[in-house]
Design brief:
Structural class: alpha+beta
Helix content: over 70%
Number of helices: 3
Strand order of the largest sheet: 1-2
Order of helices and strands: HHEEH
Radius of gyration: 35 Å
Distance between the termini: 49 Å
Number of strands: 2
């Protein structure tokens, strides 16, 4: 598609500068896209590890909690759960991945207190409470990785659209416009040269 510009040498110079800038921008965006894709694949591997770790911790805690329920009376089990209190302070910040802000979750404070009756509660409950901090950290690690993946995937898609717009729309349009203006200027120059030669012939004939 030819751009709507005046076919003169000034516009031709501007278009050539614009074309050079578009090509540099395309190269930079292409490099950024490739690096983000590399980080994306690394993040996928991290998520797989975090998911497996979280899944294993969940299975262990569920198994131990189920044992506590089976080995205790329902009323004692529910009473023990009601006497467990948690105090947690999470700081949310950001880090940059190729100028893309991704979240960082940091546990500043995590305290789990147990005030249940040890005589009516299974000893496995203590094991569940002891594993709870690591379980919460594993959950936050997985949540951070998943959110980072979502943000990065959005930026990858946006960058890909920009790369495609430059590669398949803007750059070809500028190149086609430059060719069109160049042809018109060449035709104009040939026309002027032809008229000049006719004028010379007329002058010589007189």
């Amino acid at each position: 598609m030819i751009l709507r510009v005046n076919p003169n040498r000034m516009e031709l110079l501007k278009l050539r500068r614009r074309l050079a800038l578009a090509r540099r921008g395309h190269k930079l965006l292409q490099d950024k896209l490739e690096e983000m894709m590399r980080r994306f694949l690394i993040l996928l591997k991290d998520i797989d590890k975090a998911e497996e770790d979280f899944r294993q911790r969940t299975a262990t805690i569920m198994r131990q909690t189920l044992y506590c329920r089976i080995s205790s009376r329902k009323a004692d089990f529910e009473e023990a759960l009601s006497r467990i209190t948690t105090r947690m302070d999470i700081a949310v910040s950001t880090q940059r991945i190729l100028n893309v802000r991704t979240p960082v979750f940091d546990i500043r404070e995590l305290e789990i207190s147990k005030q249940y009756d040890f005589f009516t509660t299974s000893a496995q409950m203590d094991a569940v409470i002891a594993q709870a901090p690591d379980y919460i950290r594993a959950l936050l690690k997985l949540a951070q990785a998943l959110k980072s993946l979502q943000v990065l995937s959005f930026e990858i898609e946006r960058t890909r659209r920009r790369v495609n717009a430059l590669e398949y729309m803007l750059i070809p349009s500028i190149e086609e416009t430059i060719r069109s203006i160049t042809q018109k200027l060449n035709e104009l120059e040939r026309g002027n040269l032809t008229r000049l030669m006719r004028v010379k012939e007329i002058v010589r004939s007189h």
